[in-house]
């Protein structure tokens, strides 16, 4: 009887052990499946990282057109005043020695037909001073003596020979005392000394006379 119950006990224990082992195996299988399922689910739920969207390159900005600063307009340079060397003091004892270039320079600023009406300073400074000037003489034709002469830069006989003067290269001369013309060559040369004035004589803006020397004396020859 003990052997029978022992055998029964062994069967019961063995069956329980087998049941327990089978139960553990099932649990392990379920855990394995769960683990596999979870891993698969995790792998399925893993989302691929977003791929970068290609952005077209930004074209380089065009350089702004260079703006050059306006060049300042230079003020016109003042016209240079001609310089002349004049010897003397302008007195009766030490008169100014005037040359023709000085008298001709007046045309730069005094030419009424061209709208120029400013007498230059190098001319006005001579007004009232005693001056000396050398040139060719023209006198009234056929007269034996005269108290008036025309002293000029160029040769002119007063009629047909030589180069007729202009207002800028001739001076009207009134003598302090008359001079004889008899025996003089028709073209004469010498020096005149007297009181100078720039005294324009105009007819409809044309210059008929410009320079005068009063109370003058004549020295014939060079």
Q: Your description of this structure?
A:
The protein is α+β, with helices and mostly antiparallel strands. The chain has a domain at 96-220: OB fold (Dihydrolipoamide Acetyltransferase, E2P). Helices cover 24% and strands 29% of the residues. The chain has three helices and eight strands. The chain has helices at residues 2-45, 100-104, 121-124; strands at 96-97, 110-111, 116-117, 130-138, 145-152, 170-180, 188-203, 206-220. The strands form two sheets. The chain has a five-stranded mixed beta barrel with strand order 4-5-6-8-7. Strand 4 and strand 5 (145-152) form a beta hairpin. The longest helix has 44 residues, at 2-45.
């Amino acid at each position: 009887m003990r052997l029978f119950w022992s055998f029964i006990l062994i069967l019961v224990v063995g069956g329980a052990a087998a049941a327990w082992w089978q139960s553990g195996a099932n649990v392990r299988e379920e855990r394995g499946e769960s683990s596999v399922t979870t891993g698969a689910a995790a792998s399925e739920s893993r989302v691929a990282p977003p791929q970068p969207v290609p952005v077209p390159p930004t074209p380089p900005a065009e350089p702004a057109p260079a703006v050059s600063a306006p060049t300042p307009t230079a003020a016109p340079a003042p016209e240079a005043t001609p310089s002349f060397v004049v010897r003397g003091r302008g007195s009766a004892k030490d008169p100014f020695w005037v040359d023709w270039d000085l008298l001709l320079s007046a045309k730069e600023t005094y030419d009424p037909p061209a709208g120029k009406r400013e007498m230059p300073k190098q001319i006005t400074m001579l007004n009232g001073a005693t001056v000396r000037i050398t040139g060719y003489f023209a006198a009234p034709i056929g007269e034996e003596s005269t108290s008036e002469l025309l002293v000029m830069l160029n040769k002119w006989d007063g009629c047909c020979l030589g180069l007729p003067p202009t207002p800028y290269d001739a001076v009207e001369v009134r003598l302090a005392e008359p001079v004889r013309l008899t025996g003089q060559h028709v073209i004469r040369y010498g020096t005149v000394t007297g009181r100078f004035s720039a005294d324009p004589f105009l007819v409809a803006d044309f210059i008929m006379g410009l320079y005068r020397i009063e109370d003058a004396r004549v020295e014939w020859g060079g």
